[in-house]
Amino acid sequence: MLSYVWSVVAQPEGSRAWFSNAEAASTLFFADASGDYEIELRVHDGRVAARPDRVSVHVPDTLALNACLYLPMQFRR
C-alpha cells in the first residue's frame, strides 16, 4: 500500500498555505499569499521511499486570495 505526504517546503513570509488532505494521492493546495511556493510529494510503499518530487508554484497578486491548485499537476507535451 502506498502512502503519500504533501508538504510546503518554501513559501512567502507570513503564508499559512494548506492542503485539503496532505496524505492523499491527489489533493488541493490553497495558497493564501502572493509569491513563490515550493511543494514536495513523498511516496512510500511500506518498504522503500521514492525520491521526493518537487514543484514550484508562483501565485501572482491577482490570485493571492483565491489561489487553489489541484495536485498532482499533469502536463502534456
Which range does the strand content fall in?
over 45%
Terminal residue distance: 30 Å
Largest sheet data? 3 strands, antiparallel
Helix content: under 10%
Query: What count of structural domains?
Result: 1
- Rg measurement, Å: 13 Å
Number of strands: 6
Number of helices: 0
Structural class determined from secondary elements? mainly beta
Question: Can you give a write-up of this model?
Answer:
- With 77 residues, the protein is mainly β.
- The chain has a single domain, classed as Immunoglobulin-like (Sandwich).
- Helices cover 0% and strands 48% of the residues.
- The chain is built from no helices and 6 strands.
- The chain has a 3-stranded antiparallel beta sheet, with no helix packed on it. A 3-stranded antiparallel beta sheet has the order 2-3-6, with no helix packed on it.
- Strand 2 and strand 3 (27-31) form a beta hairpin.
- The chain is elongated.
